[in-house]
Amino acid sequence: MRKISVALVFIFSTLLLPHIISHVYAEEAASVATETETEAGPAKKQIRSKSVASILAEQDPRGEPELTLCSQNLNNLGDFSLTRQRLDNSMTKADFDAKVAALVSRFVQGKCDVVAVQELLGTTSEAALKNIDQLASILHFRTGRVFETRVGNTNDPISRVGFLIASDRAEILAETSYNRVELPKIAAKERPRFFLRGPLELQLSIKGRDGSAAKIMAVINLHLKSKGGKERDPAELEWETYRMQMAEAVRRIVESRHERAFASGETLLAIVGDRNSNFDAASSDILSGRLVLDDFKAQGGCRVSKRGVAFCQTEKYRPTRLFSVLQGDPQTSLLPGTFRMNKVYSWLDEILLPQESLRFAWNTFSKEGDYTSFIINDHPKASDHSLVGVTFNW
CA-to-CA distance for 376 and 63, rounded, in angstroms? Predict the structure, then answer.
């Protein structure tokens, strides 16, 4: 028996192992070659970090992934007139066309099947739909794929959220806007507040591959209040308390409407979009479930710093309910962030999943905690935000 074992080791080490190593190095060389053709920055690191994972994926019994979910803040994309008005009055039509082309290039590079978008402009829902339809039309020209479009209701004069959905990968079963949901209050006498841009939820049927069954996925696209106009915030916290109320409302919605997604992996759930607060902000902790809004009420045990970070008694922290596949990924988390202002990066854009949905975003079927998330910063004319994404496989 020992002779047989030794013989097997000899065969593996002399015949098979060199072939495997040479294959890995060949893939790594291709990855490095790709990096030299990509502009410097966080995206370069991300391309390299996934090269070995792509080799392992070849032997993944799950087969080809079912869906790639992306999220992109469009940085005030409407028609040419509205975009120029919001961004830069000196913008030319050529500049606008370059911005649109850059956005589509990101979607193509990310191989996105579903794209949640924020800062989609339009004075009416019909106008906003026409503007996102333009992206779908160019995507069809570039890829040959048909993308359905949806836009959400809003309480903002012109900005809202929306979706692009590839019909060859997903079927829209239902949609729900939460723009008329009254937000929970911090103080009893506080005036009622609503979401500025109503979160939009789509119920999707994701088509299986390689004999896999279809799965139902709920995707909620959010865009919380920015720090703009901070001088008008009565709390003098750059609107962090407003974002905390929105985060509490979103988490309550998903916990009450999507109990099955928290109980098993039969149905999937993803919360994506622009949080407009960094990963360590109080609103981020509330959205994840580590804290709740009541913790910040009088005698609640928590307070908010001027930077928007929560300071609480240790016993106040709860088990996480929604997990970031960006911050939780060993490679993606090494990147500086998804938004840059004045040479400072922040993690404003997010993809959150409940525990039971996480395994479908693993990079390989047997490696827990290493996700298929990615960030794209190429085509900088597209937006001041990165495109973020994650791939699902079952």
Answer: 24
Number of domains within the chain: 1
CATH of the domain at 220: 3.60.10.10
Q: Where is pLDDT greater, at 188 or 23?
A: 188
Give dist(CA 161, CA 271) in Å, integer. Answer: 13
Number of C-alpha atoms within 13 angstroms, CB side, residue 170?
Answer: 28
Q: Which domain holds residue 157?
A: 63-392
Q: Does residue 22 have a pLDDT over 50?
A: no
pLDDT of residue 1: 45
Rounded to an integer, what distance in angstroms lies between the CA atom of residue 334 and that of residue 350?
A: 15
The answer to whether 247 and 254 have CB atoms below 8 angstroms apart is no
pLDDT at 40 over 50: no
**φ, ψ dihedrals at 348, nearest 5°:** -85, -30
pLDDT score, position 50: 52
Closest to 393 (Cα-Cα) out of 15, 61, 38 = 61
Beta strands in 178-276 (DSSP E): 197-206, 215-223, 267-274
Dist. CA 42–CA 295, nearest whole Å: 36
Q: 259-298 burial by CB neighbour count: b if 16+ within 10 A, else e?
A: eebbeebebbbbbbbbbbbbbebbbbbbbbbbbbbebbee
Contact at 8 Å (CB) between 160 and 151? yes
The whole-angstrom separation of Cα 116 and Cα 70 is: 6
- State how beta strands 344-346 and 339-341 pair: antiparallel
Give a yes or no: residue 314 inside a domain. Answer: yes
Furthest C-alpha separation in the chain? 82
The alpha-helical segments, DSSP class H, found in the chain are 2-11, 17-36, 42-49, 51-57, 80-87, 93-109, 125-143, 240-257, 259-263, 282-288, 355-358
27 belongs to a structural domain: no
Average pLDDT score over the chain = 88
Residue 42, domain member (yes or no): no
Find out whether 178 and 195 touch, Cβ atoms under 8 Å: yes
- Give domain status of residue 16, yes or no: no
- How is residue 68 written in tokens? 């790639």
Q: Please give the model's pTM, rounded to 2 decimal places.
A: 0.85
State the average pLDDT over residues 89-109.
Answer: 98
